[in-house]
Amino acid sequence: MNTKNVGDLAEEAAEAALIRQGYEVIERNWRGGGAEVDRVAWHEGILVFLEIRSRADETSGDPAETVRWGKQRRVVRAAVAYLAEWQGRLPDVRFDVVSVVRGRRTKVLVFRDAFDAGVMGGAPMV
Q1: Are 46 and 1 in contact (CB under 8 A)?
Q2: Where are the beta strands (DSSP E) in 1-126?
Q3: Contacting residues for 120 by C-beta, under 8 A, at least 6 apart
Q4: Is the pLDDT assigned to residue 27 strictly greater than 70?
Q5: Exposed (0-12), middle (13-18) or buried (19+): which is 113, by Cβ within 10 Å?
Q6: pLDDT at residue 62 above 90?
Q7: Mean pLDDT of all residues in 115-124
Q8: pLDDT tens across 47-61, in order?
Q9: What is the pTM of this model?
Q10: Which of 76, 101, 125, 126 has a C-alpha 20 to 30 A away from that of 2?
Q11: DSSP state of 33
């Protein structure tokens, strides 16, 4: 199985877990602002931008730990582009990270409010 197939399976597992937790996915692999966000969803009245990360096991740590400053910045940049197209009052937003560990049993963890737009260095949001 190639890397893209593995990533697709991880995203499917993540999305299934998100739906079970009450998220309503409205966008998949949305691109804008020179960046991409894996999922955009509504959760408890908040618009959530989600980064999904996976690993075969946890020997190198949790996959969520790989969402460093640069990746956070790219996700925020995509969110800014998404919100620039928004019609009407801007919603409250949140940035979550989903960790998928594949193995005999796939483990999915959702880290709510994993980072904020402050990674943009104080740049205006819109």
Answers
A1: no
A2: 24-32, 35-43, 46-55, 93-101, 107-115
A3: 73, 76, 77, 80
A4: yes
A5: exposed
A6: no
A7: 64
A8: 999 999 988 877 777
A9: 0.88
A10: 76
A11: T
Residue 46 sits at the vertex; the CA angle it makes with 83 and 26, to the nearest 5 degrees, is: 65
- Residue 88 in 3-state DSSP? coil
d(CA 102, CA 111) in angstroms, rounded, equals 17
Angle among Cα 25, 8, 96 to the nearest 5 degrees reads: 45
Q: What one-character DSSP code corresponds to residue 91? A: P
Nearest CA among 43, 45, 50 for reference residue 14: 50
Tokens of 40: 């955009």
What's the CA gap between 116 and 110, in Å, rounded?
15
% the chain with pLDDT above 90: 65
**Residue (of 55, 48, 69) closest to 113 by Cα position:** 48
In this predicted model, what pLDDT tens digit does every residue of 66-78 receive, in sequence order? Answer: 777 889 999 999 9
> How many CB atoms within 10 Å of residue 48?
26
